[in-house]
Amino acid sequence: MNCCFQGKSVGLLDADVYGPSIPRMMNLAGEPELNKQNLMKPLVNFGISCMSMGFLVDEKSPLVWRGLMVMSAVQKLLRQVAWGPLDYLVVDMPPGTGDTQLSISQNIPIDGAVIVSTPQDIALLDARKGAEMFRKVDVPVLGLVQNMSVFQCPKCGHQTHIFGQDGAKKVAEEMELQVIGDVPLHISIRETSDSGQPVTVSQPDSPQAQAYRSLAKEVVARLPPHEDPLPERKQ
Fold this sequence. Notes:
The protein is α/β, with parallel strands linked by helices. The chain has helices spanning 22-25, 67-79, 99-107, 121-136, 167-174, 187-194, 199-202, 207-222; strands spanning 10-14, 43-45, 48-52, 88-92, 113-117, 141-152, 159-160, 179-185. Strands 2-3-1-4 form a 4-stranded mixed beta sheet, with no helix packed on it. Strands 5, 6, 7 and 8 form a 4-stranded mixed beta sheet that branches. Helix 2 runs parallel beside helix 3 (99-107). The longest helix has 16 residues, at 121-136. It is globular and about 55 Å long. The N and C termini lie far apart (39 Å). The model has no long low-confidence stretch (mean pLDDT 89).
């Protein structure tokens, strides 16, 4: 993913407390070390600093927590991590409009949210709710992404819209948003994600990798200009 941000410093926060997937997808494991300030050091791979609840609990152990515990865990992942200087912090949130989304949107400034959904009508119901929630808490919605938008047969090349065609585009038009990316349903994405070798790294010239790079460029283009909170004083 870092290649999509043209050498910028990128952090990745896995805020899905119940089902963290970033450790496996980024090929990272182990408990984070602590620095002198007792802050957790992010684990780094592919040039990206990562933090996840998956580093703190066993992969096979379920978390049976109530809302307040989830909010406390999210706060820890946000505030007790030595992120260092970052140009971008990407937060991977779970589906829905629950404690995780509210806790993050109310505690840190967010430049924009990207809603990811399959084109299926049932999935788009939740996507619409997610977009409306971010609007209510004054977080700009940068756009919608159609995930698993089309399947292309590897033998004959025939395309099949398994989850429906252009469902996200219809919702985007109704909500006065734009679809900023289409990610295909492709076995290489599944295989490289499961093996911890993202397709943008392991197969950088593939159409699947290009889809992710195009999406990253669209997201960056829609973010507001960066303002340094500590500008240099004129001499």
